[in-house]
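Researcher: Let's try something more involved. This one mixes different molecule types, so please make sure each is placed in the same coordinate frame as the others.
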Amino acid sequence: MTDTTGRIARRFAELAAAGRRAVIPYLVAGDPLRDISVPLMHRLVQAGADIIELGVPFSDPMAEGPTIQRGHERALDKGVRLRDALAMVAEFRRTDTDTPVLLMGYANPVVGMGFSRFADQASEAGLDALLTVDMPPEEVEALNAELKRVGMDNIFLVAPTTPPERVEKITEVATGFVYYVSLKGVTGAGHLDVDSVTEHVALIRRYTQLPVAVGFGIKDAESAARVAQAADGVVVGSALVQLMADRAAAGDEEQAILDAAAELLKDIRRGVDGVSAAADGDRAGTA
Amino acid sequence: MNQITTDLLATTPDAAGRFGDYGGRYVSETLIAALDELDSLYNRLSQDPDFQREFDEDLAHYVGRPSPLYEARRWSEKLGGARIFFKREDLNHTGAHKVNNTVGQALLAKHMGKQRIIAETGAGQHGVASATIAARLGMECHVFMGEEDVYRQSLNVYRMKLLGAEVVPVTSGTRTLKDAMNEAMRDWVTNVDDTFYIIGTVAGPAPYPRLVRDFQSVIGREARAQSLAMTGKLPDALVACVGGGSNAIGLFYPFLSDEGVAMYGVEAGGDGLATGRHAAPLSAGTPGVLHGNKTYLMQDDDGQILHTHSVSAGLDYPGVGPEHAWLKDMGRVEYVAADDQETLAAFHEVTRTEGIMPALETAHALAYTARLAPTMGRDQIIVVNLSGRGDKDINTVARLDGIEL
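Model: All components are placed in one shared frame. Result:
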């Protein structure tokens, strides 16, 4: 069994030491092409990704905006399921043993596989963490016990609506990092409010030493740079999913889609590193 | 069968909204605060005599309750067994049981100061009931409806528009009720500050299954008293159709601790359970998590939700309320299925024999009743929840009968 313990903690520690913020791209497993995900994960790492967030396709992705919903539908049409996503992680691990991989999805496929079986197979594949959008701390006891058994992190969301006493409750069960949802809405929504993000990240930091990453509504280098002023990491999802979907729809081959994805990621990286450099006295490494 | 004692009922669901292992609150973090607010408001108001009085008055003067308990003599005679009674929810304002719940939830919205209502709908009955109550209270109303259902239930779509609601066709997924519910959740997560989500059935995250059950339980409370008054005893059997399960829980709940009362929840058998083309998660599904609660679902081995099929849009849903999942496992209610064909036959039979045209959803309960009644004695009593009227389904029935209107 691959030792996955602490890959996320290690990565954030390295970044902190270098005065940098994490760039976390999100992709839907098997989208826009059935076999693009593993080469894409490697390519994103080369382009400056610190952690990979791999979305598990689900028939009813309730927290997603239209862009990522369609990504889920495309992947499902190609037959991609939770076990396939785990197989992608395992394949990625054969040549990259450092970059943390986080699986993001919905409760039912994990419930269907069984928590114990999931923990064993995910750990075997070299997965580092799980984020189930629809499993808040109240529902997570049995799953957390299994994840803990195999040393896997469970990532929890904090939302703009989460009151302080709940932030405390969430940070008590969270490991790895805390994922702050930057807006009230679905993924890819367009009303990011950076002041509010800054306030909430500060609130989260009152209760935990864990790094805080911010996602939902970050589209480009500029919005990533603004969010990175407050957070330890930024998640970019819909912008990447949309870009690749457009390229695939236009008939681009895998290589051209990978190139386009890498360009977007590098751009985000530059935006985030610009902030790191400004905020931390020019100690930023190169992208 | 495990006995459902009054003590057990008093503690179900528990504080976390669980009915045994089912229910709970499987939602995105953004909604938790709103659910907490609703939960504490409802805990307070459900104990408040003024709120109860307000609700009862609306039920009496706006909905038109109590609804009659009607003995279907000719049909009972034809079937040659038990005496069959219909609990006439079809006579409610807007033509179905749905309005009991929307009246209750709209009062909650009013107490929370929310001016914007959203709802999901399948057959359109809950959408119409929500649009109706929104019109009455001067609230803005948006109804999410699968594109497939917008087509199947065009009459109800027009009714909602007349009432001033915006009907939002949902084009994602299977374009039916489950996708309408996904889209309503997405709207709610975006507009959570000023929006009240009126869920139409006893499913969804806690506290919805409990409060919808409480609002619908007026059906069973009335039926219990009416049965005693008209026949001098409790019914021997209760029958109701089950999609999400709100009319069924409404009828069953006040009888759950009455051991002598058998209960049958009738799911949509579609083309038949063996074909896989149905909407019967309790009869042929497995437990899982969808739309905020743990319950029985129609799903594949990978935990993906399956397409459902039913002649009735209102039952075309892959999940079911968590309390039904619990009652199934407890053995208290027997869940069965009626297929499209026998449902259509029951629709025609009851229309011709009793002069009552049932909704296609309701006709599933009647189809099972037609099987059950002949196995029972003439001194025995069945109460069927006549949950809605069939006007909305005339186009569908005509099409299935090969008639062009």
